[in-house]
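Worked problem 6 (solution included).
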Amino acid sequence: MKNIIFIGGTMGVGKSTVSQALKKDLNDSVCLDGDWCWDMNPFVVNGETKALVMDNICYMLNNFIHCQQYQNIIFCWVMHQQSIIDELLSYLDTKDCNVYCISLSCSVEQLTKQIEKDIQQGIRKMDVLKRSIERLKLYDNLNTIKIDTTLLSVYEIVDRIKEIID
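Solution. The predicted structure is:
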């Protein structure tokens, strides 16, 4: 059985960092970051671009699922609404897979610190901080396994995820 591991969380919580570390720690693994599918200029969110991104994500994930080389498929993205998770899963061929949906969260103070560091490095813009904090509480309502990362290192988070999928 393959493992499909969805890692969601608000902007700046550490999804990409954790997913890349998890990919390196698991054998036969591949990682897709949903943000790569939104890498466009100008950044436009409308019905057409949303459908394009969802189609591209599902196409890539299904290709990874059908490839014999990969046993662990990691997908990270904001996924702040249950409908996003449900729609993605409805288009994936999960019949021979274990599916794990995980949401990362942290304290507002920790999130602020992480995003401010990204802003200083030019990775994010200031407007992300407010939006990210506002979305943080949405993850409480999702049908996902929650991991509070506030006091954890990346490696401790990876270990928790590995305990979940073992």
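Discussion: The mean pLDDT is 95.
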